[in-house]
Every structure is written in C-alpha cells, then in structure tokens.
Amino acid sequence: MTVNIDWNNLGFEYMNLPYRYISYWKDGQWDDGKLTDNNMLTINESSPILHYGQGAFEGLKAYRTKSGKVQLFRVDRNAKRMQNSADKLLMPQVPVDKFIDAAKQVAKANEEYVPPYGTGATLYLRPILIGIGENIGVSPAKEYLFTIFAMPVGSYFKGGMVPTKFLVADNFDRAAHFGTGGAKVGGNYAASLQAGKYAHEHGYGDAIYLDPIHHEYLEEVGSANFFGITKDGKRLLTPKSPSILPSVTKYSILDLAKTRFGLETEETQISIHDLDQFSEAGACGTAAVITPIKSITYGDDEYTFGDGEIGPMTQKIYDELTGIQFGDVKAPEGWIFPI
Ligand code: PLP
Ligand code: COI
C-alpha cells in the first residue's frame, strides 16, 4: 500500500480517488466509455436530472481477500437493478456487460484504495445514470451520462455491527406503491431526508417506514431493508411491498438463511403490531451490511429484540455473508466477480 489512509477508522465519506469511469449516450447509443481523472461533471443547466430528478444510482463494493486479490460481490444484480430503474424513468439501459466491465475498471484503476484484508473496510462503488442535455419541458432527456466513482468506506451506521435503535417514521412516507420505491432513484432519498434528520437528532440510527396505504406494515429503513428472525429461531421474515428497494444483500441473506442454516424464509407483510414475534432483527444493505436492530420505537412504545444484543442467527448470517464477500467462505455459484 502506498496511500496513507487510516483504514480502521473510515466512515462513509466521499473521497476524490484518482479514477472514475464515464460514458455518454447520444443518438440512440452508448459511446465506448473511458476512465478519467476529472471528478467534476459539466452538464447543461436544463438537464432533466437537475429539475425533474431523471436519474438512478447504485451501490456495490470491492473486497480485498486474504491473498490480496480484489473481488466484486453480485455486480450483475446491481447492473440489472439499474436497468429496472432506467425503465421506470424512461432512460436507456446500460448493458449488463458494460456495467460490469466499468465497475471492474474502476476497482482496478483505484486498486491501492481497496482497503487491506482484515480491516473490514471496502471500496464502495457508486454508479449513476442521469438525464442530461438541453430539455426544459417535462419529458425524457435526449442524452444520458453513466459514471462510476469509488471511495474506501468503513461502516455506514455508527460502529458497524453494533445493535442500533430505529424510529418508525409514522408521519412520513418514503415512497408510494405505484411510485418509484422499488427503483433506486434520487427522489426516494430526497423524500427520506426529513424523517432521517428527525431520527438522527433523536438518537436513532435512521427512520424505518411503514407502508404508505395503511401505515401499518413495515417497509424498510431509509438506506436498508429489514429482516426479522422469529422467536423459535426457525423463520426469517422480510417485508413484501412494491415500494421497497429489492436489496441484493437481502436476497443473498434469504438464500444463505435457507440453504446454509436451514431456516424457512418468507417475504410477507409484517405488521408494526406484531414485532413481538421476533427475537432478532437486522437492517441489511451494501452500505449497512447487516446492522443488528436493537429496538424499534413506534410512538410511545419501544420494542427491544431479544436482549438487545447481537442475536446468534444474525451473527451467523453476518459471518457467512461477509466471509463470502471477503473470500474466506465458499460462495454460491456466480456471486463473486474477480477484477
Ligand atoms: N433499501 C434502500 C432504500 C437502499 O438505499 C439500499 C441500498 O442500496 C438497500 C435497501 C439495500 O440494497 P442493497 O443490498 O442492494 O445494497
Ligand atoms: C447502499 O447501500 O449502497 C446504498 O445505496 C445506501 C445509501 C443510501 C448509502
């Protein structure tokens, strides 16, 4: 390593790394794309991303293994999810191969910024796809930009694998059922800022949302999906809703819980009044990894999961998932992409 970074104390902050990938779409096609050292984007002032939010993003990580190699985790899933987000906002899809190749190029070009094995830190990749060019009416852009930049990161929630309290955002909706909640688009996050700020100011890790129709069923955290493990230790449940983001981490956890730990898994409605069926719960996502949920506060009630510490099954699933990501545990076929 030649760069001077305190790998063990990284949070989740932007860093201007040497290289990012950039590609433009014009007249119906993508250009070849290239790496650049310029971290500034120059776009027309009437670009639809700036006014009407026509843009999508992704988040994935590159991991350093014990032998020093670098690998991406399920980058094909991020590529496909960005295609779904593109469809939702009438943007051209980035081909899956182009997305994967770009992610590999960025990880490789910035390889000295992939944190050392054993620090728990990773290189976070942030792909974005935005509508640019002259366009002042409310209509899809005629030109698009796809870029991937990167930065080394530690934990997203304070302390990482530490039981964290969440607050039900009962007076807020993040997304609507027929809206954009299932797509990874900026507006969902703009809509979560108020509730997130309120939750942080009151000592919670983040806000957790209820369904926008009944305000009864759990949706997700502003930056991660929810899962709970029932008191008998046999079932892992996670909310089913069209307005939550289909988390790559969540589907990986569902798979591992079932195939490696023999749990029954189900995507189903989870009422805020039925939290007492769970003895463990977690918030899961690329940035969040698995953050154990200590308690959920809903109005005057606070429900604590188990004894408020990291549950045994949550720990097992965390170890299995991160073991796979860092190359210590055998991965299911197709989950790992060496750079
Ligand atoms: N839910 C939201 C709102 C998110 O922003 C994220 C992060 O990407 C997730 C869930 C977790 O998704 P993934 O596991 O694909 O990172
Ligand atoms: C991710 O986990 O990759 C995300 O995009 C969450 C983000 C809000 C930091």
Automatic annotation (TrEMBL):
The keyword Membrane does not apply. Its EC number is 2.6.1.42. Belongs to the class-IV pyridoxal-phosphate-dependent aminotransferase family. It holds the Pfam family Aminotran_4. Its cofactor is pyridoxal 5'-phosphate. It is an enzyme of class 2 (transferase). It catalyses: L-leucine + 2-oxoglutarate = 4-methyl-2-oxopentanoate + L-glutamate; L-isoleucine + 2-oxoglutarate = (S)-3-methyl-2-oxopentanoate + L-glutamate; L-valine + 2-oxoglutarate = 3-methyl-2-oxobutanoate + L-glutamate. Pathway: Amino-acid biosynthesis; L-isoleucine biosynthesis; L-isoleucine from 2-oxobutanoate: step 4/4; Amino-acid biosynthesis; L-valine biosynthesis; L-valine from pyruvate: step 4/4; Amino-acid biosynthesis; L-leucine biosynthesis; L-leucine from 3-methyl-2-oxobutanoate: step 4/4. This is Branched-chain-amino-acid aminotransferase. Keywords: Amino-acid biosynthesis, Aminotransferase, Branched-chain amino acid biosynthesis, Pyridoxal phosphate, Transferase. One of its GO terms (molecular function) is branched-chain-amino-acid transaminase activity. InterPro entries: Aminotrans_IV, Aminotrans_IV_CS, Aminotransferase-like, B_amino_transII, BCAT-like_C, BCAT-like_N, BCAT_family.
